[in-house]
């Protein structure tokens, strides 16, 4: 074979190797880029969920403080409801959704808040329903301090009643992770999905 033919073959083979190596680099770069996107999205979701939980806790704390101020010096909590609280300005207007003559309190985009007196009117019940797992866990672990008598967490699949303290992280995860979008009855009322209900004084 001529020298000229050998040089051409080497040049062609070298060119093929360079193209192959370029494709390998490109594949690695795309893989790394995809991993970075997945990692960034996971971090974004984690931050978003944490922020929603903090906002939820802040609104619940505002509601309990407002009820304490509204009923200060009174023997009980007769007539307490989302409408009464909303009319008294006890919750920021951005969390109040009006449905005709009724007012709903909606937190973290979808969690519904219900408030009503207990059977004797000496305590009140604060119910958060339609909770996703993250909000359910955050709500179940909220420290209501000396106002808390009992907390109920769960759905029709699994539930727990605890006296005088919030749930631990392990307890909350165990109950909230097994909840589904079923309807659950609590204190004669029906709620959708996972609920956390505090009986407060």
Please give a structural write-up.
Helix content is 45%, strand content 26%. With 201 residues, the chain is of the alpha+beta class. The protein is built from 4 helices and 9 strands, in the order ααββββαββαβββ. Helix 1 crosses helix 3 and helix 3 runs antiparallel to helix 4. The mean pLDDT is 83. It has a single domain, classed as TcpA-like pilin (2-Layer Sandwich).
Q: What order do the helices and strands come in, and which of them pair?
A:
Layout: H1 3-70, H2 82-87, E1 96-99, E2 102-107, E3 111-117, E4 124-131, H3 133-140, E5 148-154, E6 159-163, H4 169-176, E7 183-186, E8 189-192, E9 194-200
Antiparallel strand pairs: 1-2, 2-3, 3-4, 4-9, 5-6, 5-9, 7-8
Keywords: Membrane, Transmembrane, Transmembrane helix
Transmembrane segments: 21-44
Pfam family, one: Bundlin
